[in-house]
Each structure stands twice: as structure tokens, then as C-alpha cells.
Write a structure and sequence with these properties.
By secondary structure, the protein is α+β, with helices and mostly antiparallel strands. Helix content is 42%, strand content 18%. It folds into 2 domains: 7-116; 166-258, Tumour Suppressor Smad4. It has helices spanning 7-68, 74-107, 130-133, 140-149; strands at residues 166-170, 176-180, 185-189, 196-197, 208-213, 216-221, 228-230, 233-235, 237-239, 245-247, 254-258. Keywords: Coiled coil. This is FHA domain-containing protein. Pfam families: FHA.
Length: 261
């Protein structure tokens, strides 16, 4: 291609292509930043799930051991064992969902290190063919894929701060308090044993929970007396969006779901 025009024209066109490519690369960079943040959040969720799975398995083992010592009647053992096995199965299900989501991330890149701030590949050798240097810039889609596969050099080894969703709880008197949601499950109810306690008679002891699935954070009614409402609509289970207002039957209390920015 170089011999089809004067050196001046070749240089001008090449600089134009380089500038256009740099612009496309700059546009694609936020995609990489977002992918890294979301992947870091997912890894934290997986770590928490693995911890919970280990705890659930130990709890099941303890039930079986205590039964062997003669602590339980047959009916008590059956009930406790079913509960322990249910907890193990539930956490295993959440862990499988998280694993499937992680696999989708990995399919978009060449290696996991690229989602963790790995170094960019070395530049092409200086003796690259003139035809390659003068080739038209790649499409936006190709540039986005390249950005996901090649972290910017200045971000190599960067540490990503993990941002978790929050719940803004407002009392009837207008007093507000923010709670950071847990990586997996946050419980809400009248009992002080909940992660978020609302000491109102109209709120059940274990009223609701906000949990993470492959689609995002959802709220689930745990069989409460007065129900769960999201944006005024009664729900049993609902996928939350940032700004959703939750009510649990306690007059004047409002809980606002705030997704990470």
C-alpha cells in the first residue's frame, strides 16, 4: 500500500488512522473498567458463598454427631437434618449461579488476569510490515473486544475498590440511616438477630431478606404477616433496581435500595 502514494500522503493517512484508533480505544476503556469492578464484586460474593457453604456443612455434621450421641429424638433429628441439608443445598445453588456468571466473564477475555489488572501485551516489533501499519482501523466492536482483552498499561496492577449496594432506612420521624448490604443475604425484621432490625409490631420477626442471584439483588418475603411492598406493589419476590422504595407494613417506614455507582 505504501508504494501507491507519495510518502507525504502515506504519513498523513497513517496518522489519521492512528488518531481514529486511539479515539476508539479511549471509548472502549470504560467497558474494561466496568468489567473489572463487576468481576471484583463477583469474586467477593463467591468468597462469601464458599464461607457460608463451609459453615452450613459443618452445621449439618454437628447435627449428625449430636444425634449419634443420643441428644435428639427421631423426629427432632429428622427436622434438624432436613433444615441443615436445605441450607447446604440453597448455598450450593447460589454458588452454582455465581460460577456460571464468572464463566461468562472469562469467556469474554483471554485470561482471568486481564480482569484483575494484568499487564498489557508488549507492543508490536518495529519492523512490522507497512501494510499492517497502514491498514484501516478496526470496527468499534473489535476495539471493545480488544479493550477487554488488553488492560491499559497505566492501570496494570491497580486495586479495585469493592462497592456494595446500600439500603437507606427512613423512620416515620424522618431519621435516616444507611446500611451496606451483605455480599449474599441481608435479613430484615423485628428480631434483633436480623441484619437490619425494625422494632415495630407490624413487622414480623423474620420479615424479608435481600439476596444476590445471577440477575442481581432481589427482595423476598419470608412469610410475613403484613407483606412486602416495592414501589407500592405487593410482592413475594422482586428484582430490585436502584431507587426502589420498599415498605414492610410498618406505617411511615421507607427503605430505599441504592445500587453501587
Amino acid at each position: 500500500m505504501k508504494d501507491r502514494g507519495s510518502p507525504e500522503v502515506y504519513t498523513r493517512v497513517r496518522k489519521d488512522y492512528e488518531a481514529r484508533f486511539a479515539a476508539l480505544e479511549s471509548q472502549a476503556r470504560p467497558l474494561l473498567d466496568k468489567a473489572r469492578r463487576e468481576y471484583a464484586r463477583l469474586k467477593a460474593v463467591v468468597t462469601e458463598l464458599e464461607r457460608k457453604l463451609n459453615a452450613a456443612r459443618l452445621a449439618k455434621e454437628e447435627v449428625e454427631f449430636r444425634n449419634a450421641l443420643g441428644e435428639y429424638t427421631q423426629s427432632q433429628f429428622a427436622e434438624l437434618l432436613a433444615q441443615a441439608e436445605g441450607e447446604v443445598a440453597e448455598v450450593e445453588g447460589h454458588l452454582a449461579e455465581a460460577g456460571a456468571l464468572r464463566q461468562r466473564f472469562l469467556e469474554a477475555v483471554l485470561s482471568e488476569s486481564e480482569l484483575e489488572g494484568g499487564a498489557a501485551p508488549p507492543p508490536p516489533p518495529s519492523h512490522a510490515k507497512a501494510e499492517e501499519a497502514a491498514a484501516p482501523p478496526p470496527s468499534v466492536e473489535a476495539t471493545e473486544a480488544m479493550a477487554l482483552a488488553t488492560p491499559p498499561p497505566e492501570e496494570a496492577g491497580a486495586t479495585i475498590a469493592l462497592a456494595m449496594p446500600r439500603l437507606l432506612v427512613q423512620t416515620p420521624e424522618g431519621v435516616s440511616q444507611e446500611f451496606q448490604l451483605k455480599a449474599q443475604v441481608t435479613t430484615i425484621g423485628r428480631s434483633p438477630r436480623n441484619d437490619i432490625c425494625i422494632a415495630e409490631a407490624s413487622v414480623s420477626r423474620q420479615h424479608a431478606e435481600i439476596f444476590l442471584s445471577a440477575r442481581g439483588y432481589s427482595i423476598r418475603d419470608l412469610g410475613s404477616n403484613n407483606g412486602v411492598f416495592v414501589n407500592g406493589q405487593k410482592v413475594v419476590e422482586h428484582l430490585l433496581a436502584s431507587g426502589d422504595v420498599i415498605e414492610l407494613g410498618a406505617p411511615g417506614w421507607k427503605l430505599t435500595f441504592l445500587a453501587p455507582e
